[in-house]
């Protein structure tokens, strides 16, 4: 009670500081999961049911230890029974008397019955994701305590609400999950302001009021965000009996809102009585025009747009659907960092602070009326649509409405959207060819792209490249995107989805639960941990596209780029370069500026590195970074200068103090050199054992050819100068794959293998060795990193020296430690294997070698699309690796990069063989 008295005193003092004509919001709850207020609470079913206690508001009660966790597909024995009873006592100051008071709920799951001082505040509200309000001025005790009672049913008594909201492919929660507050308004006040601000500078505002007095005037003044007035006020008098009025004006030299230039203004609307402000409402707006040209595309401010988007649930692992302004800011910043320009609200409207953030930072938004394989009935859907519209209509980021997802469309609601929306934004159906848009989901590359190309609708999949575990998202994106970018009828698409919905299970000792593979769909983890696809997307969706380039001796410092912005000239961007030595020479790091070209959107030109030093060729890598007009890094590209052969020649030491010895021991050739004892099979030439003065290194049983025949035969030995040579003999029919070992006096060992992949089509090819996973502690390597790669997800990494500790992370599952250790890693020059015993290093002079670290756990889905293919053995050195599939597409269905490797030549001639050269240092 003492806390409530303090709260009351705080509110009274706050009221004195507020202007009477402004709408006052008095929060009865907190504003997000990071700021809550305790309410009395009683849960009727499940955990901690049957007793009065307290709960933070806003929240989902499952995360607070009540009720039962439900995923949308689960059969719930408590359906219809699980309810939450809330009580909260608050003071109504005497100063509220004579004012209009609305009790506002921003979101409650799912049915809400409200009483004030034992009296009903109004009809039960059905539906979870929509703000709603009750007028309560006649129900309050002023200058006294009031009792608010809220009964929340997790599942709705309205079956259409359950069909639209409660049977989705996502977690189902209960509770008052968004803020609750009281609006304190003058009796005569503005009830709604609907704004349409066009790119030509024309502003229209439809203003609704509660009063029809003849002495009232409506005035609207445009301001910049820093408070400077723009033009003169627009004013009109309300006539007798008139409660709605339209104000309109054409402004000159307006700065437009886009995802690249999120310019906003403040429109201050005042209700005046005899020239004095009675009520003032402020709206932040943006001037922009959205136009759909059928059989063409989507235009914003006259510019054709390609949407680089993602689907986003309102989600935080410790609080479910209850988020915060900080979470909204984090999420939008991450999307912008991935060079996205759009986001789809799946599958319901978001928190207001999320749309505010999209407005301020620049993201195109598709705002969605809930529905997933089921839809609201027309009366219910009409009410929820009106709430959606009133809440979100003035956000410049919202440029589309979506009427339900994947069959959850009520066609009777379609004409209501333009009736309620002053801006007449386009309406689409997700996963349907509707209204000139083909938004169908998860089309494979061959059928989907081919079908899209031969249609007439604008192609804009509202879900594609499903990101279950490590599949989808970045895997296949480059193929899809390059086709989308160059095809006029394609308007972009939206990845599924942004975040792994791993929820904290308070009933299971706090584990993070993704309900198996159902909710492990994100580009980032539950706490926004970045997976490998994050960086692939960042590069593929970079608005500055660099053409592939090899750095050779005649490099002139120039790179060809394409401007893939929609509204930004590259002269507004900034480019820098950096030279780095990675071990070949000990040179200081150098950096400088690159000249920003004057390229309009869609133009190509060159970026020139200025003041490169004369000795640039002595460095190993050149990094080139691009920054957008706001200073945000677009991406940093790396271009190799030193080739693997040059690096290997510098690293490998061949001379030693004594000549190696060669002995035959039973079935083995045993060679000793500089403290190294290494043995090979006399029959197959395979490595059998490695031992130094410090002990055994359990690296052996290789090279095994994958996919191909390990048919090394007729092994011979000889001395070549000071070196021991052990090699197989070529035979076109039985021993067409060959190996050669060279052991140098230094103890370094060279392996050269020439081999033929076995089939016309193969998942991967390379060389395998055995090494016990239990002995590995980590790796340090020079190559592309730090994330693993797949054949259809090679972009996003940088060339450099990387160190990774061993982990058992499986993407999308506990412990969400990234980057994952196991898997393929690209562009190896050398790799040091850090073990529990003696470390060893492998160096290659062969370009484009992948090294493989063990095998992630096999996982798949009910359709057998997500299948991880790995070679045998434990550690591999590959020249071709496998692609990865997703929940909805097999790997080979996501474009040319995902196809298996193709070999036409079966002539077993050595000159046509694939060749790999490796060097081993077992002594350091």
End-to-end distance, in Å? Answer: 70 Å
Helix content: 10-25%
Average pLDDT over all residues: 94
Overall strand count: 64
Approximate strand percentage: 35-45%
Give the CA-based shape: elongated
CATH class of the largest domain: Alpha Beta
Provide the gyration radius in Å.
33 Å
List the uncertain runs.
1-19
CATH architecture of the largest domain: Alpha-Beta Barrel
Please tell me the total number of domains. 6
Structural class: mainly beta
Question: What report would you give on this structure?
Answer:
The protein is mainly beta and 924 residues long. It has six domains: 2-185, Jelly Rolls (Sandwich); 190-285, Sandwich (Immunoglobulin-like), CATH 2.60.40; 290-540, TIM Barrel (Alpha-Beta Barrel), CATH 3.20.20.80; 551-640, Immunoglobulin-like; 651-758, Beta-galactosidase, Chain A, domain 5 (Distorted Sandwich); 765-902, no CATH class. α3 (325-337) runs parallel beside α4 (352-361). The longest helix is centred in the first third of the chain and has 16 residues, at 2-17. Residues 1-20 form the signal peptide. Residues 294-509 form the Glycoside hydrolase family 2 catalytic domain. InterPro entries: B-gal_small/dom_5, Bact_Beta-galactosidase, Beta-gal/glucu_dom_sf, Gal_mutarotase_sf_dom, Galactose-bd-like_sf, GH, GH-type_carb-bd, Glyco_hydro_2.
């Amino acid at each position: 009670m003492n806390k409530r008295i303090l709260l009351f005193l705080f509110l009274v003092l706050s009221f004195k500081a507020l202007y009477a004509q402004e709408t006052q919001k008095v929060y009865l709850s907190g504003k997000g999961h990071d700021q809550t207020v305790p309410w009395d609470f009683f849960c009727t079913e499940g955990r901690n049911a049957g007793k009065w206690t307290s709960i933070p508001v806003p929240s989902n009660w499952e995360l607070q230890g009540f009720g039962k966790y439900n995923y949308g597909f689960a059969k719930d024995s408590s359906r219809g029974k699980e309810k939450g009873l809330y009580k909260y006592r608050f003071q109504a100051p005497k100063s509220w008397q004579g004012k209009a008071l609305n009790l506002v709920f921003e979101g409650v799951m799912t049915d809400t019955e409200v009483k004030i001082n034992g009296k009903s505040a109004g009809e039960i509200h059905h539906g979870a994701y929509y703000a709603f309000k009750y007028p309560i001025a006649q129900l309050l005790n002023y200058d006294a305590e009031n009792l608010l009672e809220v009964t929340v049913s997790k599942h709705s008594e309205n079956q259409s609400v359950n069909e639209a909201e409660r049977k989705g492919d996502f977690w189902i929660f209960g509770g008052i999950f968004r803020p609750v507050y009281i609006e304190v308004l003058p009796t005569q006040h503005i009830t709604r302001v609907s704004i349409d601000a066009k790119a030509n500078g024309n502003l229209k505002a439809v203003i609704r009021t509660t009063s029809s007095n003849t002495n009232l005037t409506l005035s609207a003044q445009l301001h910049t965000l820093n408070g400077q007035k723009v033009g003169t006020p627009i004013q009109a008098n309300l006539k007798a009996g008139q409660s709605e009025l339209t104000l309109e004006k054409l402004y000159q030299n307006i700065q437009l809102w886009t995802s690249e230039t999120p310019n906003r203004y403040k429109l201050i609307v005042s209700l005046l009585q005899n020239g004095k402000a009675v009520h003032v409402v402020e709206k932040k707006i943006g001037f922009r025009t959205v136009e759909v040209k059928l059989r063409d595309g989507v235009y914003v401010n006259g510019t054709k747009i390609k949407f680089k988007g993602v689907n986003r649930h309102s989600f935080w692992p410790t609080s479910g659907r209850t988020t915060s302004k900080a979470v909204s800011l984090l999420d939008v910043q991450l999307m912008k960092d991935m060079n996205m320009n759009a986001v789809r609200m799946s599958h319901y409207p978001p928190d207001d602070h999320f749309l505010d953030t999209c407005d301020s930072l620049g993201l195109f938004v598709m705002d969605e009326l809930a529905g997933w394989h089921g839809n609201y009935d027309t009366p219910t859907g009409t009410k929820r649509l009106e709430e959606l519209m009133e809440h979100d209509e003035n956000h410049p980021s919202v440029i589309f409405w979506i009427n339900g997802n994947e069959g959850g469309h009520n066609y009777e609601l379609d004409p209501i959207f333009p009736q309620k929306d002053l801006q007449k934004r386009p309406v689409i159906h997700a996963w349907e060819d509707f209204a000139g848009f083909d938004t169908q989901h998860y089309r494979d590359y061959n059928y989907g792209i081919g079908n899209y190309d031969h249609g007439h609708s604008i192609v804009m999949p509202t879900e594609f490249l499903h990101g279950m575990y490590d599949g989808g998202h970045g895997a296949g994106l480059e193929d899809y995107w390059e086709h989308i970018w160059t095809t006029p009828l394609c308007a972009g698409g939206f990845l599924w989805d942004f975040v792994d919905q791993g929820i904290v299970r308070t009933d299971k000792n706090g584990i993070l639960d993704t309900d198996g593979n159902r909710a492990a769909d994100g580009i980032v983890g539950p706490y926004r941990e970045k997976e490998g696809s994050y960086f692939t997307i960042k590069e593929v969706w970079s608005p500055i596209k660099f053409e592939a380039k090899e750095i050779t001796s005649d490099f002139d410092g120039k790179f060809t780029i394409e401007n893939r912005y929609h509204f930004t000239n590259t002269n507004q961007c900034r480019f820098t370069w950096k030279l780095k030595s990675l071990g070949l020479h000990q040179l200081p790091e150098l950096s400088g500026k690159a000249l920003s070209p004057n390229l309009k959107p869609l133009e190509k030109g060159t970026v020139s590195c200025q003041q490169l030093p004369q000795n640039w060729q002595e460095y190993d890598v050149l990094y080139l970074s691009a920054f957008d007009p706001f200073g945000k890094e677009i991406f940093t590209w790396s271009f190799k200068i030193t080739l693997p052969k040059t690096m290997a020649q510098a690293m490998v030491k061949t001379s030693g103090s004594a000549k190696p010895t060669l002995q035959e021991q039973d079935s083995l050739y045993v060679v000793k050199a500089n403290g190294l004892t290494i043995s090979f099979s006399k029959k197959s030439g395979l490595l059998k054992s490695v031992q130094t003065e410090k002990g055994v290194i359990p690296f052996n049983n290789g090279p095994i050819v994958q996919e191909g025949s390990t048919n090394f035969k007729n092994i011979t030995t000889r001395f070549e100068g000071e070196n021991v040579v052990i090699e197989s003999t070529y035979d076109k029919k039985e021993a067409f794959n060959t190996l050669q070992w060279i052991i140098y006096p230094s103890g370094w060992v060279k392996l050269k293998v020439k081999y033929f992949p076995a089939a016309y089509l193969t998942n991967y090819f390379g060389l395998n060795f055995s090494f016990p996973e239990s002995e590995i502690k980590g790796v340090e390597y020079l190559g592309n990193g730090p994330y693993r790669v797949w054949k259809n997800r090679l972009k996003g990494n940088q060339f450099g020296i990387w160190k990774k500790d061993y982990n058992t992370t499986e993407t999308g599952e506990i412990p969400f430690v990234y980057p994952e250790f196991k898997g393929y890693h690209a562009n190896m020059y050398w790799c040091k294997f850090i073990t529990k015993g003696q470390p060893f290093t492998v160096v290659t002079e062969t370009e484009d070698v992948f090294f493989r670290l063990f095998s992630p756990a096999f996982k798949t889905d009910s359709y057998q699309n997500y299948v991880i293919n790995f070679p045998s053995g434990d550690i591999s050195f590959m020249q071709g690796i496998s692609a990865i599939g997703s929940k909805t597409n097999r790997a080979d269905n996501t474009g040319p990069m995902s196809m298996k490797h193709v070999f036409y030549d079966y002539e077993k001639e050595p000159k046509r063989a694939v060749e790999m050269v490796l060097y081993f240092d077992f002594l350091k």
